[in-house]
């Protein structure tokens, strides 16, 4: 994971930290914001020996701008005085931060201090529990994440002074896969790649995407917890390295009304302990033309388990949308639907970027690379929670041996057929109500405690939006109404 091997015991840890005077630690809140601190080396080693350290639970009781939720939620509330959670240090996440004088860095998972179990809305804890359920069946959850993101020649002070309007894009125009546009900012462009590698975040590809100042970065396919950590750490790295160049990378899903939004596509598969792709067929099966019992021609090159997984994902997708699209702004990206390659319906198809779930299988890739691409999330996605939802829905499909609820998108052609396709929620408010309703599939797979707490945080976001007066309203109504 890092440029040096992670320690497996206290002796190895002490040796790794010989040159350090301090250590940086951080965990994630429900919005995917890292909350952390510096610790002296002695304090850190003491916390490792003692099984963790106290961390104020208010990080799960306030929003992205540190406004305390008015509604009493399950984890952090006035009733318990915002007591400490137990922050458990994960030694396997060891790395050095190259742009901060190589300070040692570790991730933590937040536990209930009484039960020592992950709290219900800790992103890392939620995904760890999900991965454990799959491991019980002998499977490893595997995943990859791709981010698109706008970038601005601004800093924290300049965007505040401009009131977040009239910002200068890093480059002008629409230039996807451009070699010229990367030359304009070659030092920054290359540092993003190289510094992330030093930071233990492996990048698979890195290029310009269409849009003013837009980059796309695909992170290397790996285990689900590691890719979720890497995806979150990539955002931190991009923003930190950007600061050094006077650049703000934005993972907001749709900063411009008249341009496509930015995606956070997620690729998933299952692997046996022996390394076999559970979703893939054997070479012999592919050569023989695929599965004869596949529901549709477009699923004949994926395994029966993969077809059940896909059916489970489609069945529960409408109920977990807030974990895939967690912000008010994220739903603006989905308004364009297929026209902006941002699917907003319960659809799937072989190698189809118009579908919400893209099947990637032979003949376009070898059987070992068979996987699904979930194309609903934007760049604002919290990867741990999104992956938890995706894998839990897929596992439910396998356990119930669900059948695909509809035909592939390529076969849904007439206006009458298109009307039968289930649409996803078009707002955070609608998506949250769908998730929180009694008997939702989200409650079945994620649990009532998670849904009630996380749903409460999304309702707070909706309430703030409903109370806001926007520039659009002022421009539309001030003079003429």
TrEMBL record:
Keywords: ATP-binding, Ligase, Nucleotide-binding
InterPro entries associated with the record: Gln_synt_N_sf, Gln_synth/guanido_kin_cat_dom, Gln_synth_cat_dom
Origin: domain of life: Eukaryota
SUPFAM superfamilies, A to Z: Glutamine synthetase, N-terminal domain (SSF54368), Glutamine synthetase/guanido kinase (SSF55931)
Domain GS catalytic: 123-481
UniProt-listed GO biological process terms: biogenic amine metabolic process; glutamine biosynthetic process
GO molecular function terms noted in the UniProt entry: ATP binding; glutamine synthetase activity
Pfam families: Gln-synt_C
Family: Belongs to the glutamine synthetase family.
Protein name as annotated: Glutamine synthetase
Protein's organism: Tulasnella calospora MUT 4182
